[in-house]
TrEMBL record:
<protein>
    <submittedName>
        <fullName>Spx/MgsR family RNA polymerase-binding regulatory protein</fullName>
    </submittedName>
</protein>
<dbReference type="InterPro" id="IPR006660">
    <property type="entry name" value="Arsenate_reductase-like"/>
</dbReference>
<comment type="similarity">
    <text>Belongs to the ArsC family.</text>
</comment>
<dbReference type="InterPro" id="IPR036249">
    <property type="entry name" value="Thioredoxin-like_sf"/>
</dbReference>
<dbReference type="Pfam" id="PF03960">
    <property type="entry name" value="ArsC"/>
</dbReference>
<dbReference type="InterPro" id="IPR006504">
    <property type="entry name" value="Tscrpt_reg_Spx/MgsR"/>
</dbReference>
Length: 122
């Protein structure tokens, strides 16, 4: 089996409690992901082109609506934006991305729900 398929990457923010909880869950289940700092290395356009469809949720569900970056731009601006604009903004500001983003092969989870992680690694 190809190593890339088995590898797990988590895009996370060190001060994010949800990211911390997700990484603790993974560690407690013997999974050592590659952790990528989402603020320093936000998803690229090419990654989002693959990951958004793989996640099964629309680009607007990728937005961290409780974050400072989102509040600074304002809900009205996001409501008026196209999906392509939102995807571009996600590549420019990692704090706009709902996190953590877990990538395992062709499977992508956005946010942390224990049940979803258990199903993916079960």
């Amino acid at each position: 089996m190809a190593k890339a398929k088995d590898s797990v990457t988590v895009l996370a923010y060190a001060k994010c409690s949800t990211c911390i909880n997700a990484l603790k869950w993974l560690k407690s289940h013997g999974i050592e992901p590659q952790v990528r700092p989402i603020v320093d290395e936000p998803p690229t356009s090419a990654e989002l082109a693959k990951w958004i469809p793989a996640s099964g949720i629309g680009v607007r569900k990728w937005l961290n609506t409780s974050g400072q970056s989102y509040r600074a731009l304002g809900k009205t601006k996001f409501d008026a934006a196209s999906d392509a604009e939102i995807a571009r903004w996600l590549t420019e500001d990692g704090k706009l991305v709902k996190r953590p983003v877990l990538v395992k092969g062709s499977q992508v989870l956005v946010g942390f729900r224990e049940e979803a992680y258990a199903e993916l690694f079960g």
